[in-house]
C-alpha cells in the first residue's frame, strides 16, 4: 500500500476515530468556549497518521515541531503552511500575520504535532496568543508527557477544551490493520494474540510484525501463517531490543 493511499484512506482505527471526534468538537464548539485541544500518548500509537487524516478532512494547517524548534521557526512553519510563501518580519509581525489569516476562517483548525518538544518552553504561550487573538481551533499533539508539561503554563492549560488520550490497538484494531495493509494475509489466532501481546498494542510495532509475517508466509508460498511457522514469540519484535551477540 502506498503512503498516499494510507493517508487518504486510513484503517478506521479507534485513534483515527478519536482524533476525528476531537477535531470536530473543537471546530464546532459553542461560542465562548476555548479552542485549544490536546491529543496525547506514547509514540507508535498512530497519532500522526490520525492527525494527517484529520488535517485532510478539515482542511487543517499542519505543522510539526522538532527538538530545535524556536518561536520564530514555529511561526515560519505556520505561515508557510497557511499560504505565505516567503514570511518576513519580526516575530511580532509574524504573529499578527498568522492571527489575521487564521481569524479569516475560524472553521479551519491548526494542528501542531510533536508539541511535547515545545510544551516545556516559555514560548508555548505564543500558541495561546495565536488562539486568543484569532479564536481559531488549535490542536496540540504529543507524547504522554504533554499534559504534564502544559500544567506549568496555566494560561495555556486552562484553555484546553478537551484532553484525548491515544489508546493501544486491541484485537479489532489489529484485524483492521491487517486487512488494510495485507488483505491477502491470514493469521492464526495464536499468532494474532502473540503479536498483540508482545507489542502491547503499539501500532507501529504491529505493522512491523505483520510485515514479517507476510514475508514469512510468502517464502513458503502460503497466504496463511501460524505462530510456529512465524518462529514463535521470540521472533516477534516486541518490548525489548535484541541482545548484543555474546551478551548473557
Predict the CATH topology of the largest domain: Rossmann fold
Give the topology string: H per helix, E per strand. HHEHEHHEHEHHEHEHHEH
Proportion of strand residues: 5-15%
General form = elongated
Q: Provide the CATH superfamily of the largest domain.
A: P-loop containing nucleotide triphosphate hydrolases
Which regions are unreliable across 5 or more consecutive residues at pLDDT < 50?
1-8
**What is the highest CATH level, the class of the largest domain?**
Alpha Beta
Structural class based on helices, strands and sheet pairing = alpha/beta
Q: How are the strands ordered across the major sheet? A: 2-3-4-1-5
- Main beta sheet strand tally, sense and closure: 5 strands, parallel
Radius of gyration: 21 Å
Q: Could you tell me the mean pLDDT?
A: 90
Total discrete domains? 2
| CA distance, first residue to last residue | 40 Å
Amount of helix? 40-55%
- Number of separate strands: 7
Overall CATH architecture of the largest domain:
3-Layer(aba) Sandwich
Question: What structural keywords apply?
Answer:
disordered N terminus, Rossmann fold, elongated, two-stranded parallel sheet, 248 residues, alpha/beta, Helicase, Ruva Protein, domain 3
SSE map:
Layout: H1 3-8, H2 14-27, E1 36-40, H3 47-58, E2 61-64, H4 71-81, H5 91-103, E3 110-113, H6 124-134, E4 138-142, H7 146-151, H8 154-157, E5 160-165, H9 171-181, E6 186-187, H10 189-199, H11 203-219, E7 224-225, H12 227-230
Parallel strand pairs: 1-4, 1-5, 2-3, 3-4, 6-7
Helix pairs in contact: 2-3, 4-5, 5-6, 9-11
Amino acid at each position: 500500500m502506498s503512503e498516499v493511499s494510507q493517508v487518504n484512506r486510513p484503517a478506521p482505527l479507534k485513534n483515527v476515530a478519536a482524533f476525528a471526534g476531537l477535531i470536530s468538537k473543537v471546530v464546532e464548539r459553542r461560542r465562548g468556549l476555548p479552542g485549544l485541544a490536546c491529543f496525547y500518548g506514547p509514540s507508535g500509537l498512530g497519532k500522526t497518521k490520525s492527525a494527517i487524516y484529520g488535517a485532510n478532512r478539515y482542511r487543517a494547517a499542519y505543522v510539526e515541531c522538532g527538538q530545535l524548534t524556536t518561536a520564530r521557526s514555529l511561526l515560519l512553519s505556520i505561515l508557510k503552511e497557511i499560504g505565505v510563501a516567503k514570511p518576513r518580519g519580526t516575530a511580532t509581525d509574524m504573529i499578527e500575520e498568522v492571527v489575521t489569516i487564521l481569524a479569516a476562517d475560524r472553521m479551519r483548525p491548526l494542528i501542531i504535532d510533536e508539541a511535547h518538544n515545545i510544551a516545556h518552553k516559555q514560548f508555548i504561550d505564543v500558541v495561546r496568543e495565536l488562539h486568543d487573538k484569532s479564536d481559531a481551533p488549535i490542536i496540540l499533539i504529543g507524547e504522554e508527557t504533554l499534559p504534564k508539561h502544559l500544567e506549568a503554563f496555566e494560561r495555556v492549560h486552562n484553555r484546553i477544551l478537551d484532553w484525548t488520550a491515544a489508546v493501544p490497538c486491541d484485537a479489532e484494531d489489529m484485524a483492521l490493520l491487517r486487512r488494510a495493509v495485507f488483505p491477502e494475509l491470514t493469521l492464526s489466532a495464536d499468532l494474532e494474540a502473540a503479536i498483540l501481546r508482545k507489542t502491547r498494542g503499539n501500532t507501529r510495532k504491529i505493522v512491523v510484525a505483520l510485515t514479517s509475517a507476510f514475508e514469512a508466509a510468502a517464502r513458503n508460498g502460503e497466504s496463511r501463517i501460524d505462530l510456529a511457522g512465524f518462529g514463535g514469540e521470540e521472533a516477534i519484535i516486541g518490548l525489548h531490543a535484541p541482545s548484543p551477540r555474546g551478551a548473557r
